[in-house]
Design brief:
The protein is of the alpha/beta class. 28% of the residues lie in helices and 25% in strands.
């Protein structure tokens, strides 16, 4: 058996997923299995085998994973496809880890090239496409059914199966939980303050260390500005990760953004493109950040902040 499509519930979009799978060559598409964790009578008859669980319990990853792992080992499916739903993207990497397979999420294109499966997904905030070729002939994936690969023909091209083999299963009784949630403690701040701020100061790797970054926070308090961090600065622990500014963090809409010691990588620039004015400070005059700045200053960031704080302190004395 070459592949299996996992249908979790009515929130999945099986028709769009099957349309994507129909891009596979016949030797891979003709042996598809359906693993249905719920009612799936409305799905097209394109599966050589159907394994249906008529009584799936409320979603709990550990319970579902246990049964999916059994199916993987029992039927030896080389490729397993989920929808890129919350549950699908949670189960796919965990099932891959348990069964020793490759895993890739949010796929919107797939083909067989040179005997190996080639997969396509978006990268860099959908500004690029990444193409992956699997080194082995197995894997677990989630399909972005809302996307269509360039040049893909519409419609379902999988062959219909007149007499599929139907296998009925029942979920075993769920064991009592070994833990349960009693309290949620918020350890980070409210990043909405950062998203909605008019003035934001963002520090980067060029701040050098946590002590220098603390000076940046002090300046933010004096100027009543919110303070954020680039990914390297946040990864160093100089500021909480909920203060990360960039593609995978907070996207700013400030009237003024002052970046200090930020090199200007593409994910960071994506996070500040909503700002009206960007002033950049970096000791490297060729840093990419200056290309996205309205005003740039080639200077040592920590030294500049110390000078500003000293001037402010002097004004207060007078």
């Amino acid at each position: 058996m070459t592949g299996a499509l996992v249908y979790l519930n009515g929130k999945d979009n099986p028709a769009a997923m099957l349309s994507m799978l129909s891009m596979l060559p016949p030797e891979l598409a003709s042996g598809l299995m359906l693993w249905s964790l719920g009612e799936a009578a409305a799905l097209p008859s394109v599966f050589a085998r159907r394994v249906e669980f008529a009584n799936p319990p409320p979603y709990l990853a550990e319970v579902y994973l246990s049964e999916l792992e059994k199916l993987t080992r029992e039927f030896g499916s080389r490729y397993i496809f989920f929808a890129n739903s919350f549950a699908g993207n949670e189960l796919a990497p965990r099932l891959a880890a348990r069964t020793g397979r490759s895993c890739l999420l949010d796929i919107h294109g797939l083909s067989l090239e040179g005997g190996r499966l080639t997969l396509t997904r978006d990268a860099y905030n959908s500004n690029m496409e990444a193409v992956y070729t699997l080194p082995e002939e197995n894997g677990v994936f989630s399909l972005d059914a809302g996307r269509r690969a360039p040049g893909e023909a519409a419609g379902l091209r999988l062959p219909l199966i007149t007499n599929p083999l139907l296998i009925k299963r029942k979920f075993p009784p769920s064991p009592p939980p070994s833990w349960f949630l009693t309290e949620v403690i918020e350890t980070g701040g409210d990043n909405r303050q950062l998203e909605e701020a008019d003035f934001v100061i963002v520090g980067g790797q060029g701040m050098g260390n946590a002590d220098n970054f603390a000076l940046l926070e002090e300046l933010g308090r004096i100027w009543e500005a919110q303070v954020g961090a680039s990914r390297p600065a946040a990864a160093n622990g100089w500021l909480n990760m909920d203060r990360l500014v960039g593609q995978s963090g907070v996207k700013l809409s400030a009237r003024l953004c002052l970046s200090v010691g930020v090199s200007g990588a593409a994910p960071f620039l994506n996070g500040i493109q909503g700002c009206e004015t960007h002033i950049a400070v970096n000791n490297d005059k060729d840093a990419p950040v200056f290309a996205a700045a309205d005003l740039g200053l080639a200077a040592d960031g920590p030294e500049l902040i110390r000078t500003l704080l000293a001037l402010i302190a002097g004004e207060k004395k007078t």
